[in-house]
Amino acid sequence: MAPIAITPEPSRSATPQLKTPTTAWSPTEDNVSSLTLAGIEHALPSKNASSAGQAPLDASLLQIELTQSPRAVPAPESPEVAAQKTCTDHMITARWTLEHGWHAPELKPYGAFSIMPTASVLHYATECFEGLKLYRGFDGKLRLFRISRNCQRMRKSAARIALPDFEPKELEKLIIRLCAQDGEKWLPKERPGSFLYVRPTCIATDEALGVQRPQEALLYVILACFPDMTKSKSAPAPPALNGASNGTKKAPSSGLKLLASTEDSIRAWPGGFGYAKVGANYGPSLVAQGEARARGFDQVLWLFGSESYVTEAGASNFFVVWRNKTTGRLELVTAPLEERIILEGVTRASVLELTRSRLSEAMGDVEALDVVEKRFTMADVVSAYREGRLVEAFAAGTAFFIAPVSLIHFRGEDLVVPTEEGESGVYTRVVKEWLVNIMYGKETHEWGVVVDEVA
Fold it and tell me: Which PROSITE patterns does UniProt cross-reference here (predicted)?
């Protein structure tokens, strides 16, 4: 059973229940105070680690050692890229110790590093990471998308699992420096529209086997060749749509096919760490994901509680577009952040911000819609489906980017999600185009951070 958060309430039911917060989360408010929240507050001082007498993470101290054994760049869509094991020539590392703080970071040849068998990360899941992409624009420039948000989120994730604090801007500088070093070779200008996956990671390397706050840690950044998930073929039609159900249904030819989770499968819970990008959120979900794929689905649609609140699709944020039953207006709906169950996705935030600013009024033939962040259940989705109010659905994240959803299987029923334009819905296409234009330089925007390549 999933652990239940400690709360100041006099009693709690055995089954975790969602509560509606009255205000945004704040670790200093009495009504939400707890050991965990107080600990996170102390881990995120108003100033950097130097306030505790420790050396802060400082990108200006970067030491550089270039490789003498350059690695071969694989061809696009090759088996090497599909394997997701090939990284660029260099990586960034930075060591932290309790006695000193952050040591000088290094840019050095990509390769293995050693940790002791008793290292904290191997026993207590003291690890967090980020995922973003370096893009080769159609204008020939390299760009990172909203990198500052990834660095800020990684700081929050590190605090959640007792890893050392750092100034997000310094991590951003280190990531940009690595991208500047390897970007020209690994994303050549003759391959516009391509990308590398950027993976900053922090692990506790403390040799002590006891359960305690780590006294040593390693921060590192790598760039990996990664397949374009938006071009991946969807899984085969699930058995329910593969001749086993009534003849009125037709298996969608594209789009994600989601299998809704059951009450005994919980990805995250209030008071837990679902909002943090830590490895412990992903490993336990692999069994359910594997079973879903064995049944012909692409991902698990994670639900929470007996009410079946909709949270995430696999490791991505989930959106539906439906027509409000009362007002008749179209709405873009996604789960809220306040209960800290879902990840505060960078793509999620971008979808919401762009839609609010660009579709508050009709855009040509595209009808305006309202953006709503709220709790909603599978019963709400089923009702919209049966009443013909469900317009479309999609998942949003770094890996799958903006992926249309074509089917949701829930308690024996297949909901064939409309895809008005064949492979996706209108709003899925429009939102994806907006983001692609920013990421690849077709639209000049502050979110696209240009990386100056090293000559």
Answer: AA_TRANSFER_CLASS_4
